[in-house]
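User: Hi! I'm working on a homework problem where we have to compare a predicted structure to a textbook description. Could you give me the structure for the chain below?
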Amino acid sequence: MLGDLVAVARNRVLGGRGPRESAYASLPVRPMGTLRTRYHVSLEVLDRAGVLSTITGEFARHGVSIAAARQTGEGNGTGSARIVVVTHKAPEAALAATVDVLAGLDVVHGVHSVLRVEDLGRKGVAG
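Assistant: Happy to help. Predicted structure tokens:
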């Protein structure tokens, strides 16, 4: 870390960019809400008919397209089930609004995780 500080100070004094400084450093930072990426959302829900439809309907209402969904549970309507949704690329703001609504639904016991799925630019990987 000390080496990084020395390099920054040297470049500041000499008025130049460091050898490892990116040409992207001068680009503006976009607001987080406009970031488009895929998401992995895990929910615990009431295990009864129609809950999956309610959940997916909220994604649709906020313009977040679903790439895959999986529900696991006993299927007897008396307990909880886990729903995992993987989305297509969507704006962070739309996903956040969706999760806020889902967390307030009577059929949702909890939103366990919301993870970004980063595209590494390789074919067939999270693209």
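For your comparison, note the following. The chain is about 30% helix and 30% strand. The two ends are 35 Å apart (CA to CA). Good luck with the assignment!
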